[in-house]
Design goal:
single chain, globular, 9% strand, alpha/beta, 4-stranded mixed β-sheet
């Protein structure tokens, strides 16, 4: 795995989350790129003044938009990596309103959720259809606004040890990624 531009404390948290994933999904994490990316000042200004901070996302998986990439490529908002206490406060607020599952650590949640995008775009069409047929809006969390985000939330929760319908189904679908 290649890890770029993360401060030491965040780097350790990212590596720990990846180690958890590697133990369960060794092929998934064998080659991956995780990078802390600074958000340009003009975008921060637009977000503050027009969107009340709602665009200040945790991260994104480039594979979601570029599914042909052969390895997971995860870009994490460097602002969140620089201030773990602020990240933890926002994450705990998101958990308290059921917007995200409580995965115990914000960085672990981010890594697992974003890796799940890579899994989703690489799972078989049959498995994706099956997941989509069982999709319910806002399940397992408020961020589950479409089947892909639902899968990512369920996968992150599963890796964190949560149980329930979606969390228990996620590993079966995750085991199928790349099996066309």
């Amino acid at each position: 795995m290649i890890l770029l531009a993360a401060i030491a404390s965040s780097r350790q948290r990212i590596m720990s989350a990846c180690d958890d994933l590697k133990a369960r999904y060794p092929l998934l994490t064998r080659r991956a790129i995780v990078a802390g990316v600074p958000i340009p000042a003009p975008i921060q200004w637009i977000d503050r003044n027009f969107f009340k901070g709602q665009l200040n996302a945790y991260a994104m998986c480039l594979n979601h938009w570029l599914p042909f990439l052969p390895v997971p490529v995860i870009l994490i908002n460097a602002g969140w990596l620089d201030d773990h206490s602020q990240l933890k406060d926002r994450y705990l607020n998101d958990v308290s309103i059921s917007y995200h599952p409580d995965c115990g650590c914000p960085i672990k949640y981010i890594i697992c959720h974003e890796f799940a995008h890579f899994i989703y775009v690489n799972m078989s069409a049959k498995s994706r259809r099956q997941w989509e047929q069982g999709y319910e809006h806002a399940q397992p969390s408020g961020y589950s606004f479409n089947p892909e985000e639902s899968f990512c939330e369920a996968f992150a929760g599963h890796v964190a040890g949560l149980t329930g319908k979606y969390y228990d189904e996620a590993p079966r679908f995750a085991a199928d990624y790349g099996q066309e």
